[in-house]
Amino acid sequence: MHDFSPNLILSHLAEAHEELRWLFARMHFAIFGEVDDEGVKDLGESVTQEESRNPLTEEMVFSVMVRAYRHLNIAWNGRHASEERVRRGDPVDLKRWSKFPEDAIFRDLWPAPSRCRGKPREPGGGRIAPNSLQAAFLQMAVRKLGVLCYRIAHALGKDSPKVVPRPKGGRSDIDSEPFTEEEFARRMHRIYDEMNTAWAWRKRTRDEDLSRQAIRRRRQFPSVFLVGLRTKWTK
After folding, report:
1. Is residue 1 one of the residues assigned to a domain?
2. Which of 3, 25, 132, 133 could make an S-S bridge to 43, C-beta 3.0–4.6 Å?
3. Please, are residues 226 and 100 in contact by the beta-carbon 8 Å criterion?
4. Any domain includes 184
5. Number of folded domains in the chain?
């Protein structure tokens, strides 16, 4: 990983992973009344207490996801920054890196320009009822992000500042393959894809079209995040 800024990448991916794990645990509890998924069991007690005090709202979902998007964007856009530049922490760099990536591999995730103009509708503060399809896409994003964190931590070797457990299941050769920019881009694309779709399905109706084409239409970056990545949501 000599061409990467591994500490910046790993720290921001780990932050995004924790944000999404917490959100998935909240959704899981709201749907099933408990937190028994293997990947978030450790959050069960805190989620149960939080749900009784502050029921999940669309505004909460939005604020968590916008922070997660911001961490992912910084990890990707700042991937080649020098360690000295990272330590300096210039606000101008962070603002530029926090924007959604425009690299060719991500272009199919960008909506038409007309959808990115104007002021988006701000998320409501009322209680929401997450659906199982939305939770499933978010769960896939959490799992894929966990694998990416592991791959990068493993590439750092024994001196890694973060200890990331090996994902259960998956390919047996995950430890032996060198980590490349192509793999990084491919895995990031899949994570963005799952997150975008999770947000798009937040208001699924019972008779909604569940065809492959319908799901593909929901893969693009939601305009509310493209326009709405503002300071008030990222403090």
Report:
1. no
2. 25
3. yes
4. yes
5. 1
Q: Residue 36 is encoded by which pair of tokens?
A: 């028994």
> In this structure, are residues 224 and 64 in contact, taking their beta carbons and an 8 Å threshold?
no
For 29, counting Cβ atoms within 10 Å of its Cβ (0-12 exposed, 13-18 middle, 19+ buried), the class is buried
The stretch 57-76 carries a mean pLDDT of: 92
What confidence category does residue 182 fall into, taking pLDDT thresholds of 50, 70 and 90?
Answer: very high
124: how many CB neighbours lie within 10 A of its CB? 11
Model confidence at 149: pLDDT above 80: yes
Nearest to 96 by CA among 232, 229, 233, 194: 229
H helices within the chain, ranges in order? 6-32, 44-53, 58-77, 83-88, 91-97, 132-156, 181-200, 212-216, 223-228, 231-234
Spatial contact of 188 and 76, defined as CB atoms under 8 Å apart: yes
Q: Using an 8 Å Cβ cutoff, are 27 and 194 in contact?
A: no
Kindly state whether residue 178 falls inside one of the protein's structural domains.
yes
Long-range contacts formed by 91-99: CB under 8 A, 24+ apart: 97/73, 98/70, 98/73, 98/74, 98/229, 98/234, 99/73, 99/229
Cα Rg, the chain, nearest whole Å: 18
Label residue 231 exposed, middle or buried (CB < 10 Å: 0-12, 13-18, 19+). exposed
Residue span of the structural domain in which 186 resides: 6-234
Asked whether residue 10 is assigned to any structural domain, the reply reads yes
- Which pLDDT does position 122 carry in this prediction? 60
DSSP letter (8 states) at residue 145: H
Length of the chain counted residue by residue? 235
Task: Give the bridge partners for 127, in sequence order.
Answer: 57
